[in-house]
């Protein structure tokens, strides 16, 4: 990455981190209902991957999706508003954290079911090259759409994901499987659930595989560029095994449970490899002063503060609109009965 | 207007939509060689738009969702209707919910075809269900055409609809012949009154419409039966049912799914809530027994709705 790209990556990672820290505060203040899963620690993966995507590319996300959505460029204000269940949310308060989407940016949604979004990415990848596809159908492999399916290592034992590996490989789809391998399926360590590594398994399906240091945004970006080019140029789907770590619990409330599935030492070891600190150090190497970094941090802080202010000012949906958006083609009788009709 | 078998009408609807709209594609197991007889000749006519999938029902169902969000209009064929259970998350928890969950940001125009739905004498426990109730319960637009004309026109409407639509094509209807006018449009929603009558309203869906008509003819000198073909398990046409029951005051509901929490239960419960003061007799259901389909044909006949049970229900309702 050149200095400009690295600064942009730093800003994105700082934005994701501060967004997530603010989410924790808002959850604890009961301003965000439901369950949220923070992306803290994994910022380099979404940032490096999304930086390699073009404007027409598509991604599918996970229950831990805030990083992908902000990394792809969604507005943090509308994202906060969605988490806070407001009408100005990305999904008008109908999705929340686990279903947040911005289809205009090719974000086909976070997903509450592990692995379930991956086949959407496959279908979207196919549609871009299929005869009759809407948008800008093309057989020109240099310009066709690439899809990225994000998922965690926990998804590696989910049938629908493995089926999608196979289907994508068999049909040589232009897609990237981006595995955020943080080592744990909620509390279960990866080795307790699978005999082989994600990379070994992906190799067996015929995917082109690369293992990546998911704590290093430049390494992710370099691998992502290779993967996207591989897919776009018609050489078939790619599997990126991004080794990373979540610094916090599986969800916001996990710390209340006092679970002991990871040692303090292990967490501290990984925190010592904080991907944002690493980028800050590299930017100093590119000649930025501490004051420059502080200025960047201030800008992110202002951006996030303004986003929260925007979200708080947004109204809650009217109860009478609970059935809105259910059907794209309503009929006389799909104006569905509600309660006693 | 031509006389056509139901199966041929279904295949013609798919063929005509694929010819009319280049974004329509056809996915499923063994569809290139048309094992099920719905996609004959399509792969040659539309190269690249007909895909034989791996035996991965969950993945190819989700694949259709993504292709639909990206602008295609996929048709997904399930070789066996109970494969719905394998793909259930991808239909009811993903495709069906995405529009609402995204606050209307996208549409998911996918058509799920279930040819050969229901019992066929001897296919036993795992191949004999007719699971339209499950999708109706989850709010999926769910059609069960009874006639060749509806197989043609409703399938075309399903493909053109911007939401996920499931179409169950009953095994007992596939060989049926009837007039088909390809210029006729049948929208999703309205029921059809197949036989007018004044004494008892029978509402049925799929092949049970034909059973109801046969029984109505048999009973013509005793009871004047009105037969309503619901056409759609969801959305259900309450308006047509209300008008009929307001006249007859008597209702029998026929349903080829399990009795407990079945489609008939919903129709009967709503009739009891909404039409109580018009009813002159208790609402009766004729549905499947709550049992996995036993293999022996004699046992299969014993647990699905048949003419004997329909006749008994109509006569009891008429006398009550």
From TrEMBL, chain A:
Gene Ontology MF term list: magnesium ion binding; pyruvate dehydrogenase (acetyl-transferring) activity
BP terms from Gene Ontology: pyruvate decarboxylation to acetyl-CoA
Keyword Oxidoreductase: yes
Cofactor: thiamine diphosphate
Domain Dehydrogenase E1 component as annotated: residue spans: 12-319
Taxonomic superkingdom: Bacteria
Alphabetical keyword list: Oxidoreductase, Thiamine pyrophosphate
Keyword Oxidoreductase: yes
Pfam families hit by this protein: E1_dh
Listed PANTHER family: PYRUVATE DEHYDROGENASE E1 COMPONENT SUBUNIT ALPHA, PYRUVATE DEHYDROGENASE E1 COMPONENT, ALPHA SUBUNIT BACTERIAL AND ORGANELLAR
Name of this protein: Dehydrogenase E1 component domain-containing protein
């Amino acid at each position: 990455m050149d200095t400009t790209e690295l600064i942009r990556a730093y800003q994105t990672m700082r934005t994701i981190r501060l967004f997530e820290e603010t989410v924790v505060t808002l959850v604890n203040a009961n301003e965000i209902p439901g369950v949220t899963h923070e992306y803290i620690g994994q910022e380099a993966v979404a940032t490096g991957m999304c930086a390699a995507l073009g404007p027409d590319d598509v991604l599918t996300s996970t229950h831990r999706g805030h990083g992908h959505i902000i990394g792809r460029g969604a507005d943090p204000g509308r994202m906060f508003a969605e988490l806070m269940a407001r009408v100005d949310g990305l999904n008008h308060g109908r999705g929340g954290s686990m279903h947040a989407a911005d289809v205009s940016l090719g974000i086909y949604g976070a997903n509450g079911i592990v692995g379930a979004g991956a086949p959407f990415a496959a279908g979207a990848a196919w549609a871009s090259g299929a005869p009759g596809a809407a948008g800008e159908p093309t057989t020109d492999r240099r310009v066709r759409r690439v899809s990225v399916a994000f998922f965690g290592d926990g998804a590696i034992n989910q049938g629908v994901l493995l089926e999608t590996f196979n289907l994508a490989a068999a049909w040589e789809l232009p897609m990237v499987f981006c595995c955020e391998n943080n080592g744990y399926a909620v509390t279960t360590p990866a080795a307790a659930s699978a005999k082989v590594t994600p990379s070994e398994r992906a190799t067996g399906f015929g995917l082109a595989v690369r293992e990546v240091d998911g704590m290093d945004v430049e390494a992710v970006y370099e691998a992502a560029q290779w993967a996207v080019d591989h897919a776009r140029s018609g050489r078939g789907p790619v599997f990126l095994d991004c080794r990373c770590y979540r610094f916090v619990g599986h969800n916001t409330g996990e710390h209340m449970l006092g679970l002991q599935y990871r040692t303090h030492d292990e967490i501290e070891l990984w925190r010592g490899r904080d991907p944002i600190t690493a980028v800050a150090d590299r930017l100093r190497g590119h000649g930025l002063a501490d004051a420059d970094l502080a200025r960047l941090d201030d800008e992110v802080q202002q951006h996030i503060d303004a986003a929260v202010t925007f979200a708080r000012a947004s109204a809650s949906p009217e109860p009478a609109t609970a059935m809105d958006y259910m059907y794209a083609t309503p009929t006389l009788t799909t104006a569905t009965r509600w309660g006693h009709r | 207007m031509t006389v056509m078998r139901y199966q041929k009408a279904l295949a013609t609807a798919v063929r005509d939509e694929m010819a009319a709209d280049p974004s329509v594609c056809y996915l499923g197991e063994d569809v290139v060689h048309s094992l099920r007889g719905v996609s004959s000749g399509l792969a040659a006519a539309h190269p690249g738009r007909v895909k034989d999938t791996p035996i991965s029902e969950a993945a190819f169902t989700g694949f259709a969702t993504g292709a639909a969000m990206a602008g295609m209009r996929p048709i997904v064929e399930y070789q066996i209707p109970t494969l719905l259970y394998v793909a259930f998350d991808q239909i009811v928890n993903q495709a069906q919910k995405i529009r609402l969950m995204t606050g209307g940001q996208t549409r998911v125009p996918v058509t799920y075809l279930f040819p050969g739905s229901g019992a066929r004498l001897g296919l036993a426990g795992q191949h004999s269900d007719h699971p339209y109730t499950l999708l109706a319960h989850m709010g999926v637009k769910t059609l069960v055409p009874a006639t060749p004309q509806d197989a043609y026109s409703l399938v075309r409407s399903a493909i053109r609809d911007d939401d996920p639509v499931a179409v169950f094509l009953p095994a007992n209807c596939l060989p049926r012949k009837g007039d088909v006018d390809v210029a006729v449009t049948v929208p999703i929603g309205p029921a059809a009154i197949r036989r007018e009558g004044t004494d008892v309203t029978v509402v049925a869906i799929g092949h049970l419409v034909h059973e109801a008509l046969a029984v109505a003819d048999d009973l013509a000198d005793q009871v004047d039966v009105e037969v309503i073909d619901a056409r759609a398990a969801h959305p259900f046409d309450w308006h047509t049912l209300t008008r009929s029951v307001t006249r007859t005051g008597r209702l029998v509901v026929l349903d080829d799914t399990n009795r407990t929490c079945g489609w008939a239960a919903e129709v009967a419960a709503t009739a009891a809530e909404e039409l109580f003061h018009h009813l002159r007799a208790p609402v009766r259901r004729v549905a499947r027994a709550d049992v996995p389909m036993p293999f022996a044909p004699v046992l299969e006949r014993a647990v699905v709705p048949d003419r004997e049970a329909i006749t008994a229900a109509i006569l009891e309702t008429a006398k009550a």
